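Saturday, quiet lab. Running sequence design on the structure tokens for the scaffold JK sent over.
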């Protein structure tokens, strides 16, 4: 069963499809429901789910047959459930990402300064959350560490999450500056790079300028016939999912270029080991 996040997005996409097929506008739906256009937009993008009454009004408006109505109502009920991550008090922008990651079959990520969250040690997680006090309240650090450790369990599941990571050498250099973190973190990276579901490459300094100088990003790929690829970008005080397929495709192309310029896995491991011995 898909997570509540993906159920919400699936329902929103279907309602948008129905509105478009009927030739209606967001303004008309807002008038029908007696709400703002912003609320309709949030429903259709999967940010929020409609109430049972709102969905019934929409289904009546679109004259849907009983089997279609049943499916949409079941989806709505699943969308309103609490995901496993709900107890971690996540900000909305990251809660949606974790929900989507839960359903993803593969994560492709490019990191400039940080090491990928799914490949971090507990000590590294704790250190960066303490430094990020403008986002994580000091009292919430251990909760955030526990969340990241829980997310990492998918790497060892019966059907493990695939991870393809390209990391800038800068992320290694930053980590190496703190020997108390570096020893275990670099050992963990080397071990991870040898797992069949993890592909880890380092983009070395000698590569020079590259196609994602402006920031890191993550691409989420899903099982066939479930949901199209989705991107995620994070910044100093938040982050957001990118559903627009043209933008996602562009980021996918950028990721391919980064992979082509990065070291192969064997040479990447050698570079990590060099940092570990420095």
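Result came back. Writing it out in full:
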């Amino acid at each position: 069963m898909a997570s509540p996040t993906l159920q919400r997005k699936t329902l929103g996409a279907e309602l948008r499809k129905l509105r478009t097929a009927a030739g209606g506008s967001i303004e008309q739906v807002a008038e029908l429901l007696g709400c703002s256009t912003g609320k309709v937009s949030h429903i259709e993008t999967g940010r929020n789910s409609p109430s049972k009454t709102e969905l019934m009004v929409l289904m009546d408006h679109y004259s849907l047959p009983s089997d279609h109505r049943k499916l949409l109502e079941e989806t709505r009920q699943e969308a309103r459930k609490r995901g496993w991550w709900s107890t971690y008090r996540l900000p909305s922008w990251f809660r949606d990402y974790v929900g989507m990651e839960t359903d993803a079959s593969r994560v492709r990520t490019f990191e400039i300064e940080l090491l990928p969250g799914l490949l971090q040690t507990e000590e590294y997680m704790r250190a960066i959350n303490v430094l990020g006090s403008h986002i994580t309240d000091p009292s919430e650090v251990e909760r955030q560490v526990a969340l990241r450790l829980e997310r990492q369990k998918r790497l060892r599941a019966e059907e493990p999450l695939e991870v393809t990571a390209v990391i800038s050498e800068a992320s290694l250099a930053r980590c190496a500056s703190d020997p108390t973190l570096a020893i275990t973190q670099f050992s963990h990276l080397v071990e991870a790079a040898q797992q069949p579901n993890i592909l880890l490459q380092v983009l070395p300094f000698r590569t020079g300028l590259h196609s994602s100088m402006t920031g890191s990003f993550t691409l989420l790929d899903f099982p066939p016939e479930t949901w199209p690829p989705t991107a995620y970008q994070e910044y100093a005080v938040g982050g957001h999912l990118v559903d627009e397929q043209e933008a996602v495709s562009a980021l996918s192309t950028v990721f391919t270029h980064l992979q082509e310029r990065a070291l192969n896995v064997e040479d990447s491991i050698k570079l990590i080991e060099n940092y570990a011995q420095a």
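Notes for JK: The chain has two domains: 4-79, 84-277. The beta strands are 106-111, 162-168, 198-203, 217-221, 230-235, 238-242. Ask whether to fix the surface positions before the next round.
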